[in-house]
## 1
Amino acid sequence: MGKVFLFLDTITNKVDTKGRVSLPADYREIVKELSTDIVCYRSLTAPCIEGCTENLLAKLASEMENSLDFFSQAQDNLTNLIFGDARKFGFDSTGRIVLTEKLLKHAQITDSAVFVGKGRKFQIWNPENWAKEEARIRNDALKNRPSLTFAKENN
Amino acid sequence: MGKVFLFLDTITNKVDTKGRVSLPADYREIVKELSTDIVCYRSLTAPCIEGCTENLLAKLASEMENSLDFFSQAQDNLTNLIFGDARKFGFDSTGRIVLTEKLLKHAQITDSAVFVGKGRKFQIWNPENWAKEEARIRNDALKNRPSLTFAKENN
DNA sequence: TGGTATAACATGGGAAAATATGGTAATCAA
DNA sequence: TTGATTACCATATTTTCCCATGTTATACCA
């Protein structure tokens, strides 16, 4: 198997008045190795920002082209939702990206942001919101261990 | 994987009295990198302008040649409509295209236009119309999360 | 093991470049 | 010539880039 790239760990960084925040060094390493870019968009299901590589999004675009026809309504809605919200975020020589007002507002982020690894994707949270979310997830996991295990191995 | 080209994000630009509007810089970058042109036509299904690269239309034309039975007669008619309606739009040194009266009228655009990325394609909307459309799509997505989730995780 | 040197990283601020947009001049067709 | 279209210039704003500094993590040596 080739080299493995996963967004891991949970890292808190400061957000300055320009919306700038350091992308964790490990994440930058993935971007460089894969010669891709980071893409971020508003999570559909949670008050957080979601990110992945542009490669992953391109893969999604290709699959949608192959599985749905050129004029389908379903494809129309999906592409608007996903690609219309997503945006590339290149980082400068010091490793920072500039988050947009739209994203910051959706995640209720002001002066501090938490990066949470999710494997192929990652999320960016307001610290307080993440603390609550993590507690909730851990609690659920204890109650539903079988289904959680199944879901985690299934990819 | 080679370099990736996707129309992303949602960007609002002004339209002046001549119909001039700046093509978002990221979109121009795609055109330059692929040495192609932007093609626009009236959307068949929504009150908006639809755009893509000339390359993509060429691909569509090729697919029709190579797999005649792949496309139904109905879709064949639709592609005729698109090719008949589509026109190339080159941008000037400052990055602006000039939208035609026909397109502007179809999309009810007057002094402001919203570019919405759709991956291989993009759309141009009247701002108010787009706000409504986006709300509708997001609402639908939340109701139909299973199919959306499947598409997003399926790679 | 403890301490120090070194490197990597995060962060604040300002300079430089890119972008959007209004206006004017040149070009072309009728 | 006249109206329309296209190309070009000017400027304000936004975004990006780069330098400087403080902080944290890592490596090295006594």
Note: The CA atoms of residues 41 and 85 of chain A lie 5 Å apart.
## 2
Amino acid sequence: MQKRQDKKTRLQAIRLIVSSQALESQEDLQIELDKAGFPCTQTTLSRDLKQLRISKVRGRNGHSVYALPREGMFSPVMTREEKDKRCWRVVFSGNLMVVHTPPGHASMVAYDIDNAGSPYFLGTVAGDDTVLVVLQEDVKREVAREAIGEIVSQLA
Amino acid sequence: MQKRQDKKTRLQAIRLIVSSQALESQEDLQIELDKAGFPCTQTTLSRDLKQLRISKVRGRNGHSVYALPREGMFSPVMTREEKDKRCWRVVFSGNLMVVHTPPGHASMVAYDIDNAGSPYFLGTVAGDDTVLVVLQEDVKREVAREAIGEIVSQLA
DNA sequence: TTGTATTTTGCATAAAAATGCAATAAATCT
DNA sequence: AGATTTATTGCATTTTTATGCAAAATACAA
């Protein structure tokens, strides 16, 4: 067998390529990777993509393209209980809502809040275990509390 | 050909099944769907999944399961050009300004805001795609909006 | 070093998913 | 009603992706 190429670097190249172009098959990716100086087989690509947790997702047109995984994505295998536990405590201060979560889960919760499209929440900033949510000015805390409850348990 | 079953209903059933169990193949889905009273072929499923924009995503273990589409979940939903073109969304609440950016760009924007040396902005906190800017107490929103506009456009 | 374990990779092949074509049900038009 | 168009669906097949196995490079231990 020939001298191995640096796998780390190849994986990095794959990330780069996948994030910058819409590739529809491993064969296409293989071609691009080859251009970039990383020749390899479809077999290897299949394994690399698995390791990088890259999957094909459908655009509006129905076509599928490869895409990097985004944190905050959780598999449908997560149990109800696990999801409900994502949100620990909610307190308010001025027009800010402070959501406490388990360590490391803040970004996921923030992601869900952002994507819930609620009119009450203007935006979020996530740390490691805390999410800061900026409320619409005239929103009552009760309303906000209920809304966050729905988002967390609903996605749960 | 036999009497057709209601496609609408079948699609609904697929949504339900996919969102409640971790299925690894269309064949598995076919079996579940059959149990639910919607017998059909893999061919039909392939088409249904395409129409529903359901795709396989990888869990942490690397295994793939079908999952309903979630907006904004994957990067390629928006191309790089679209991201660059997208106009920043700026909203206010109290003496806070909330600046939305493309995913991962918040810290860069925050950095630029900090370094712009504007007297209107006391400080910033950046998440992944949101920057929280604390405004000087007596600053008018129009002024703030204009100021941020200048800072941001310098980036582009 | 020498021997052993682990990792990486490709080939051949299996498994999974997508699609061209054709048949026919259902809808629409005249 | 009868004719025409559109939508669904399955079969056969192709295309795409995953994997068992083996070879060889690299890492590791004694």
Note: The domain at 88-155 of chain B is CATH 3.30.1360.40 (Gyrase A; domain 2).
## 3
Amino acid sequence: MKNGETAVSKATVSRMPAYLRYLKGEAGKGVEYVSSAAIAKDLGLSAVGVRKDLALVSSRPGKPRFGFEIRLLIEDIEKFLGYHRWTNAVIIGAGGLGRAILAYEGFENYGIHVIAAFDASPAKVGAVGGKPVYPMEQLPDIARRNGIRVAILTVPRAAAQEACDEIVAVGIKAILNFAPVHLHVPEGVTVRYEDLAVSLAALCGESAGDQI
Amino acid sequence: MKNGETAVSKATVSRMPAYLRYLKGEAGKGVEYVSSAAIAKDLGLSAVGVRKDLALVSSRPGKPRFGFEIRLLIEDIEKFLGYHRWTNAVIIGAGGLGRAILAYEGFENYGIHVIAAFDASPAKVGAVGGKPVYPMEQLPDIARRNGIRVAILTVPRAAAQEACDEIVAVGIKAILNFAPVHLHVPEGVTVRYEDLAVSLAALCGESAGDQI
DNA sequence: GCATAATCGATAAATTTTTATCGATTATTA
DNA sequence: TAATAATCGATAAAAATTTATCGATTATGC
């Protein structure tokens, strides 16, 4: 807690997406209220922890005997996470993964427009799922005109650093990197690593722990 | 620290993949030694923290004046994370994302064989990147014969819980879920959520924090 | 209308994780 | 060969996070 602007811990923030996913699921089933104990049980957390987390982001307190109103809670968490602010994003690398992400519609629910993909290979240029794939040369122009703030990097490992440099040169400050490579970026640029293999390996490790 | 078997904190474990990625990158450039200070600088951590993490997994101490020997460190971390144990995995849902993952070769580096995909739609059956796509009905048979321990779930949101139930019924104990849905699973089954939209949204939030 | 049971929110304790400090070790270099 | 600078590992302090406890609130059922 440095100056009052961020009184919410990182650990709490990291649990918010799980709450949101859970609450939306319950809302979809027609449930209107949910207790901290119920959330904790389904998500494998402690009820006290859940209450603490929710107290930090919810605008209205929970009702004794009922719990929290799901609809309000979803609104509050979305507002807290900033899903109400729209962001434009692009994909760099139109291989299998890049094209799959380009076709994925789920981002719109989170305030993110993925507007196009770019690829160094002319063979990949065209369109996927109604969205355009441009040659890499057009990145600076299109990115600047559309105020792109985020890039999703889905190029092969060997091309990652070079592509990263191009992204940075355009002024993009946030990169979601799917290439299993450590990227060197200047100060002020945020990289988030999304290594599918690591996720899977971690999962194996977790579930294997019991068996040894 | 309950009984001496797990004296390594979760936080430390969660940083290991980043170390590994970084070290492999440096090794690829021909570097042989690296200091805790250098790692910390590039990864945005504290040198003391890096030393503490590495002390817990490395078999040999670092050399004063040189740092750690990268080759040994990579071996130690891989051993620690269990990448030496082989695991068979399958993909459930052969849409765009499922096919992209099926074609991805990177898993082999982490001790994971993705042997096949399954899909409820007959139209999807066939092969991708040399790997077979089977109809969903064959999951129990093939999974049991190959000792499948992990499933990667890439079906649409609406089909996720049903597919999850089928996976669980087969006896698979670990699921990497790409559908943006909370899954209800029995005790003993581990689910890891890999919500691309959330990752991206979180990234936007991080980089947006400065600008408000 | 009143006792009851379920739930919340706040405060306090315990645990975990991070950061700081300092002596010990080892290659470099004069 | 001896002084120096860089780095480590261990111990201690600080900060963050999780867990426990308890009185307050509110719908339910008699």
Note: Residues 88 and 147 of chain A are 7 Å apart (CA to CA).
## 4
Amino acid sequence: MADTSGVPEPTLDEQIAAYQREFRDLDPQVEKIVSALGRLNRRMNVAYGRQTANLGISSADWEVLKALVLSGAPYRMGPSDLAKRLGLTPAAMTHRIDRMVAEGLVTRERDESNRVRVIVELTPEGRGKWLEAMRMATVFEGELLQDLSPEERTALGEVLTRLLRRVEHAQPDAGGRLSDLD
Amino acid sequence: MADTSGVPEPTLDEQIAAYQREFRDLDPQVEKIVSALGRLNRRMNVAYGRQTANLGISSADWEVLKALVLSGAPYRMGPSDLAKRLGLTPAAMTHRIDRMVAEGLVTRERDESNRVRVIVELTPEGRGKWLEAMRMATVFEGELLQDLSPEERTALGEVLTRLLRRVEHAQPDAGGRLSDLD
DNA sequence: TATGTACTCTTTAGCTTCTAAGTCTTCAGA
DNA sequence: TCTGAAGACTTAGAAGCTAAAGAGTACATA
């Protein structure tokens, strides 16, 4: 285990001040938003990781469980669809499914109507783990947002989805400029 | 390279609707905020990763460059401080520095005043890469936020730092409940 | 001065997880 | 029936990590 003590991350404001010293053309307000977003997400992922670890599942497991649950009952997908969905090669997906079968989270069997295909199906235990993880996550999320008024929640949701739309319909090229893809 | 075509991620609203079907106790507004945060961050990280890849540096390199720049001139740190800062073991740090020395991004030399220690120092080339990456990142960030009014930017920055403060001073325990650490 | 101890970094061995490339099986169409 | 395409698995190997052992240096203390 890596030792994290002794050399603390600078606070958000310290970091922005340092950036301004090292890089002239910096809008501190933009940087504050972007850095806070990044940090907030990092902390939240640490929290989620701890919670799923307490359930004995890795974040790799979690991704697969999520994809299967989102596919809806009867919670079945083929390995290659899962691989595409998660951005893995089929080989990596094979290994990941091996592990999850051993852990009892999913089953793997041939599709009898087309024996080239394989069906990965969520077990009741896998679904239970997903439900438990969701339960813990929603408690955490509720407490995280508890100080926000209803108006603030509405406004925050609206602004974030606006930013998300913008980043989903555009990606930066080599020069760092947003360019429409469609 | 993994194939991502053909099995698209559900839209944010589709995903939340699916969550509600599978998990009763879900506040859709909370979930929308949290999911948008996660997606936004993921897309941004993809964008940053593309930009730094265009400069020929990995995200591992980027973390080290950032830590050294933030330490301020003369941009020097010891391997163990870097390791603690980045959450790596000293062994992993040794390997990472090996690579970066080979890439010309940093130098490594003994501290002559205390020959137990080693000094990792940013090269002008390493600093140039950091500056170039920052230039691209700020252009991207500016365009990302360009539709937000000054009031919206202020409000967003304020809300995000509030959430960040909350998550930094509390971490969930096994039950998913936020509990103060200090 | 000598020596034990602590500190810092590196080396070694091994693990995990990924990719690329090749193989096997099955199905569809000429 | 033959052939090609598609899906999943196997194998080989790369990358990056950890833990633990090792080597070199500094320092306190007898």
Note: DSSP finds seven helices and five strands in chain B.
